[in-house]
Design brief:
The protein is of the alpha/beta class. The chain has helices at 73-79, 83-93, 114-133, 156-164; strands at residues 15-16, 22-25, 39-49, 52-61, 104-105.
């Protein structure tokens, strides 16, 4: 996916932030850097970060104990009351310590439902396809790849060289029964 900085979203009235969309996986298992999870989309928030749309897709790991019960945005509030508000609040203020202004949200801060979120994912996937195929301006983003067989493709050896320069961390070995998130609703304390 890609939030296209040359396109203004008709709902947020802002351009994309030149990044992939962000997914906030709300399940109990703590992930690690680089982990890939299959998730179920539940909704989306439209953060407006310095005048750019920065989508925050709310999703749950398909293997989470609550995944079978959660199918849309209202299920988050049903099973994790206050989580959407707390997530919104965190994204609103997290850049303030860096001297930046607080972020805003489109839709008055309301999280949109699964159907809307799915359309956001489809639109940003189409934007990525345009980027990677050369139909969109890619001068401000690296599109090198070893798999697509297009003008941006590099050899597998070159890709391995790039990957070798990155930070590699093994998945942590911990007692998985201790390695999970706990959601505590303030309304029940």
């Amino acid at each position: 996916t890609w939030e296209d900085p040359s396109q203004t979203n008709s709902d947020t009235k802002c351009v994309g932030d030149n990044d992939p969309i962000d997914v906030c996986e709300i399940g109990e298992a703590v992930g690690y850097i680089g982990q890939i999870k299959q998730v179920k989309i539940l909704g989306v928030m439209a953060l407006i970060d310095e005048g750019e749309t920065d989508w925050k897709v709310l999703a749950i790991d398909v293997n989470d104990p609550l995944a079978s019960k959660m199918n849309d945005i209202e299920d988050i509030e049903r099973y994790m009351p206050g989580l959407i508000h707390a997530t919104n609040e965190w994204f609103r203020i997290y850049k303030i310590p860096d001297g930046k202004p607080e972020n805003q949200f489109a839709f008055g801060g309301e999280a949109k439902n699964r159907a809307y979120a799915t359309e956001v994912v489809k639109e940003t996937a189409e934007a990525w396809a345009g980027l990677i195929s050369g139909k969109s301006d890619s001068s401000k983003i690296a599109t090198a790849n070893a798999l697509l067989g297009n003008a941006s493709s590099i050899s597998e050896a070159a890709a391995e060289e790039v990957a070798a320069g990155g930070v590699k961390r093994a998945a942590p070995v911990t007692d998985q029964s201790l390695h999970k998130w706990f959601f505590i609703s303030g309304s029940k304390i």
